[in-house]
Amino acid sequence: MTRFWRTLPVFCACLENNHVMHAALPNVAFARMPFREGNFRPAINVLEPASMSPSIHTRENREFATETKFLIDLAAASEILDWGRANLAPDPHAGGGSLDTYQITSLYFDTEQFDVFHRRGSFGRSKYRIRRYGSGGVAFLERKLKTRGLLTKRRSIVKLEEIERLSDANSNRDWAGHWFHQRLLARQLRPVCQITYLRTARVAMTNHGPIRLTMDERVRALPLSDLVFKNAEEGTALSESRIILELKYRVEMPTLFKPLLESFGLVPQPVSKYRLAAAALGLVADFAPPPHDSAATAPTLCALG
User: Which of 53, 138, 171, 299 could bond to 13 as cystine, CB 3.0-4.6 Å?
Assistant: First the structure.
């Protein structure tokens, strides 16, 4: 079970009494969700936190996973959210009225030539970003690496004020973010934009490992040239009439998700928030911004996946 919790993101962190803490859930209990009328079968066992104990993790290596993305309209999103809340448990690190939402703000890095955006060579397999949850006083230095269709993540947690160290010409080996700083220097990466959105997350444990359903809305982007988190309410709205749905699992599509796909006719679409932001902000000269929030936008969004 400990292995399972290492695969789930640490979504909520705080800086309290100069001590970095976040929620860890080493013990869980199982509960069966009530039956929902409609085209879906009763839910399988889902996770319900039985206890929470604080711990400190400065580095985390994530096991491989598969992410399948969909672009859905608001009407479908409402129904899918109802399904998720009936069949899956809330993410234990989330909040909000249904205890399953939180804000994410990320700073994305690219080269002067935007090699990450254009997926040139090895730049096409990895993304480097700094992530912050809500208004927390810590940041997560992350590398997202895709190999043969599977994703792995590496992340380190640092105090928010420490991210300024990434501007230094040399990396400090004693710092938790040393590995991240080294890669930025070696690959000549610099901050290019900030992306903010509201995420709803539901989780469950299956016989094949943990599964997650996330829905991202109110996605906004700002151009960026320094290592500072800016006002999340500012920026360009990337998609106000569509929601980005992600199903996350180990390798094969979980049985629980299959009725969801069939009932809503969901078709996977390769949507990338970073590529969408870079194009919409005009950061990439030879890519025109997609049409603003119209029904014709979907093919453009998919092309940016």
Answer: 138
Nearest Cα neighbor of 163 from 187, 131, 193 is 131
User: What b/e readout covers 54-84, taking b as 16+ CB neighbours within 10 angstroms?
Assistant: eeeeeebebebbebbbbbbeeebbeebbebb
The C-alpha atoms of residue 10 and residue 193 are separated, in whole angstroms, by 23
At 20 the pLDDT is 30
Domains and CATH numbers, the chain: 2-303 (3.20.100.30)
* Radius of gyration, CA atoms only, the chain: 19
Nearest residue to 116 (alpha-carbon basis) of 272, 281, 291 = 272
* Segments of the chain scoring below 50 in pLDDT: 1-59, 288-305
pTM: 0.76
Give the Cα separation of 19 and 303 in Å (integer).
Answer: 44
